[in-house]
Amino acid sequence: MPNMIGKAGRLFADLNPGKDLEKFTIDNDYHSKYPSMYFQDRKCDVLPIPPPSINPPRINLEEVLSDSFINEIKNTRKISFHVLGDSGCSDYEEYLDEQGIADMMVDDAQRYPMLAFCFHLGDVVYHFGESKYYYDQFYFPFRAYDRPIFAIPGNHDGMVYAENQKSLEAFRRNFCARNPNDPHDAESISDANGQVRRLARSAMTQPGVYFTLDAPMVSIIGLYSNVLEGPGVIAPNEIISSIGIEQYQFLQNELERLKPEHDAGERAVILAVHHPPISLEIIHGDSSRMSSDIDRACSNADFWPDAVLSGHAHMYQRFTRNMPRTRRASAPNNQASPIQIPSIIAGSGGHAKSYPHESLLGPKPKEIAQADYENMILPITEAGYLALTVDMTPPNKRLTIRFNRPHQKIMFRKKVRDELDEKRALDQVTVDLATRQIVPPPPTFIASMFDFFRRGEKSNPI
């Protein structure tokens, strides 16, 4: 198996990943921590956001991957990458889902050499984001994934249960290191004799817990929506004063910065935030105040992203938001049609499945109360991940997002090709980046989806 080497000697995968874990190296004792008085007294508190190491907090993919890899992406005018959320598994019974997803992502990277990176939507480690669980829940499942992984924190990555625990300390140690060779948590004591297992992945060097990833032809603005089970919070208000305005101002500034290149047809822009602005899930619902803050920044910048990606709810959901065009954001040929923005929830990375309200179940997607959102698909409760492609080859410049899920629980090092092919794209949406309109999927994809939901037997591998 090849091992990609990035800038400054960065490593992303092990040459000899070995067998899967048959049990966690450290049992997760989260059940004893939720009742703690410290957590119970503070579980409704929004916590301060650590300042970024540089301002504005941006990282360029060119700082991470080799020049030859970046140049090949630029020459093809096409970039593909993965997105997933809520992959951390605190119970071994859930672990097969996370490992199956990781194995499918490894297979994608081996089949498609120009697949560039993964962006994680948060809740990397459950339930209190502790360092000692990073090996089992993050590094080991993705030990063969030969690509960089960027991440924004979820609420569980920042939650604390004791006074001596610092919020986001482990997340920053592993994803916001100053140097890729800085100490991090890709090691674990694996036996009673104290033998330490180390994995090869270097620490990630993001400039903060909110930041922009600039890559060829696409930028992802990642926000930190804090530690509450709900709602998400990105800015202060009349009730919340424990965080500053810096993250909100960062969002508006980044939208203003990226708008000219987007409008010139050179860049797609994606917004990533752990808590979803809209959700139909029973427990993890909307964050309407956060959504209003995002809208205010977009309105002030006169620019809305091409897609909004979230996690938190442990299922797949897709909505289309229909936004009126401003006078300055008119469509080509003076089209009066609204901007169409996919809003996708992909918190199905392996943690415990969750379910939508029973009133929303049925043979087709139900209408929802939010006037400018349209519910596009019945929620999918199976584990899976997103595969995105930005294609800037003329004449049609497009962003395509697919939701994939492994057909079987496939354990690493035991795969056969027929099993790997049993991977399905259960949903797909494509955005025309010039018109800001959603493009109908090809008839072959519609037919394969109909066949899947009718019989669940045929595969549609990416």
Quick structural overview:
The protein is globular and about 70 Å long.
What does this structure look like?
The relative contact order is 0.14. This protein has a single domain (7-455), classed as Purple Acid Phosphatase, chain A, domain 2. The radius of gyration is 21 Å and the shape is globular. Helix 7 (246-263) crosses helix 8. It is an alpha/beta fold and 462 residues long. The protein has ten helices and 17 strands. The strands form three sheets. An eight-stranded mixed β-sheet has the order 1-7-8-9-10-12-11-13, covered by helices on one side. A seven-stranded mixed β-sheet has the order 4-3-2-14-15-16-17. The protein has a two-stranded antiparallel ribbon with strand order 5-6. The two termini are 21 Å apart. It has helices at 37-42, 67-76, 92-111, 134-139, 155-158, 169-175, 246-263, 288-301, 417-421, 443-455, and strands spanning 58-60, 78-84, 115-120, 149-151, 187-189, 196-198, 211-215, 218-223, 268-273, 307-310, 316-323, 339-346, 373-375, 385-391, 398-406, 423-432, 437-439.
